[in-house]
Amino acid sequence: MAGPSKQFDQHQALDKALQLFWKQGYESTSMQELVDVMGVNRASLYQTYGNKYDLYLASFNRYIDATLNTFNQALKTPGPALENAQTLFQNLVQHSLEGGLQGCFINNTAVELGAHDQELAQRIRDVWVKFEDVFAQMIQRAVDEGELKNDADVRQIAQLLNTNLQGLIIQTKTNISQEKLFDSIELIFRLIRE
C-alpha cells in the first residue's frame, strides 16, 4: 500500500532548506526552522528527506549539481578558453558578493563540518576534483588553440585555478570589494598566460 501523497513541491522545499543551511550552517539550523521555512509539516519532512543530516546532504548535493552545471556551461561556451575561465571566475565572485556574505556552500561545509565528517570531506574533495577536471579541459583547449605553450602543465594549472577560486570565494564573505577581487582574478590569469 502506497503512503500518503506528498502535498508540496519537493524541489522548492529543498531549495528553501538549502538557502537556510547556506545562510546559517548545519549546527545553527534547527528542525523547527526547517519546518517553518520549507512550509512542510515535520512528519512529511522526515518521510521525504529523513533526518536533518540527510536533508543537509540533499541540499548539499543540489548545490553541487547547480555549481557543476555552471562550470560545464562555461566549458561549452565558444571563444578563447582562458577568457571563458576568467569570466567564470568573475561571475562566481560577483554572484557570491551579491549573496549577502554567504560565500560558497561547499566551502562553508568544508569549514564547518569537513574536519570531523569524513563523508562530507570526501564529497568536497570529489567535487573539487570535478572543478579541476573542467579547468583542465579549458586549459587543454587553451594549449590546443595556442593561448598557452605546448609544455603547459594542464593538471597543475587546473589545480592552481581551483585553489585560487576557492580562496577568492572565501574572501567574498568578508565584504571585500569586487574591484580588488577582480584585480586578483586579472593577475591570476595574466600569470598563467606568461
Walk me through this protein's architecture.
The protein has 194 residues and is mainly alpha-helical. It has a domain at 63-193: Tetracycline Repressor, domain 2. The chain contains nine helices and no strands. The protein has helices at 10-24, 31-38, 42-49, 52-76, 81-98, 105-113, 118-144, 154-172, 178-193. Helix 1 (10-24) crosses helix 4 and helix 5 (81-98) packs antiparallel against helix 7. The longest helix is centred in the last third of the chain and has 27 residues, at 118-144. It starts with 9 loop residues before the first helix and ends with a helix. Mean pLDDT is 93; it is low at 1-5.
Outline the fold blueprint.
Elements: H1 10-24, H2 31-38, H3 42-49, H4 52-76, H5 81-98, H6 105-113, H7 118-144, H8 154-172, H9 178-193
Helix pairs in contact: 1-2, 1-4, 4-5, 4-7, 5-7, 5-8, 5-9, 7-8, 8-9
Characterize the biggest β-sheet.
Answer: none
**Which ranges are low-confidence, i.e. pLDDT below 50, for 5 or more consecutive residues?**
1-5
In the CATH classification, which architecture of the domain at 63-193 applies? Orthogonal Bundle
What does the radius of gyration come to?
19 Å
Instruction: Give the end-to-end Cα distance, rounded to a whole number of Å.
Output: 66 Å
Helix and strand composition category = mainly alpha
Helix content: over 70%
Overall, the morphology is: elongated
CATH superfamily of the domain at 63-193: Tetracycline Repressor, domain 2
> How much strand?
under 5%
